[in-house]
Amino acid sequence: MSYQEIPQIYTLKDIEPIVSDPRFAKELIDAIQNGFVAYSQGKFNAAPVQTMGAPPMSPFIAGVENYSAQTCVKSGYITGESHYVIKVASGGHPHPNSGLMQLYSQTTGKLEMLLLDDGLLTELRTAAVGAVAARLLAPDLCVRDVHGKEIMCIGILGTGVQARYQIRYLAHITDCRRVRVWGRTERNTTKFIKDMEAEGWSVSAVESPQHLLEAPEDDWYCPLIVTTTSSREPLLKLAKPCHQKRPLHITCVGADSTGKIELDPTLVESADLLVADSRLQTRERGEFEEALKRDLISLETVTELGELVLEKESWRVSEDDNRLTIFDSSGVAVQDCIIATMFARQVYKKR
Predict the structure, then answer these.
(1) In 3D, which of 77, 171, 184 has the Cα closest to residue 130?
(2) Which among 199, 218, 237, 340 could bridge 264 via Cys, Cβ 3.0 to 4.6 Å?
């Protein structure tokens, strides 16, 4: 009898220095974009997503106020690549973020590498897809007034870990450094502002999510809004008609399981372009789930991100492109496969 060799094991302490390199982030954004092209072309093999601890399942812990904990298992592989990946990610109140990724050889089926990343790789691959969507669809964020002052802002819903990484990864595709943020508590919002200003961002708070859509003055206009909360009630609603006179893109990454929602379905219905990471997943989770159930939109009107990459005529390239575009990401295993194999290649290079 032959015994399974112990796989290479890397902890967060080993992983963080490699993935924190700005060069890794830039390469990851490009790799994620290419990965979604492979996904939409049928070259990625994804197993059904498993979600535990969230509706319709029972919570892990009963009676917890503002409970949002869940564990997701995603897995798959790109045809012809070296590994297949199984990812387990946990988090949400009251649980801290945790997780791991397992890399198995497609040739032998053996577990070769175990990444005990505490959920960091999931945060980064999610931030990377947000940057991809913004690169293709966000309006120009670097508009200045006659005095050279920036007059555009990036709008952020949420003050957690993912909100921070979304901003950090946007820094790789835009020079805009002004942010308007909404958080559920004053304490979390104040800490977010302090932390991000220490990283060179100019951040101010808004009283309600809707203020991001209905900025009364151009100086506070947010042509790009990123939503990162675990809300189960709509936070952004169809604004006054005036907002559609100006270009707007919304990236949504918070609704990663059934029942979560950050956008009112009528806002989704009003969009000129709807993009999802996975057309298959968007039927059962994400921002388009409720709009689909109400027949406000049809699945045929949803473009996959990988398709959008190849349809350059759908990108926002003109200053007078006043469309409302929405990108919804519930997370696809191709992202986990890409970031895990990217890390593995970095490790092999250092040998």
Answers:
(1) 171
(2) 237
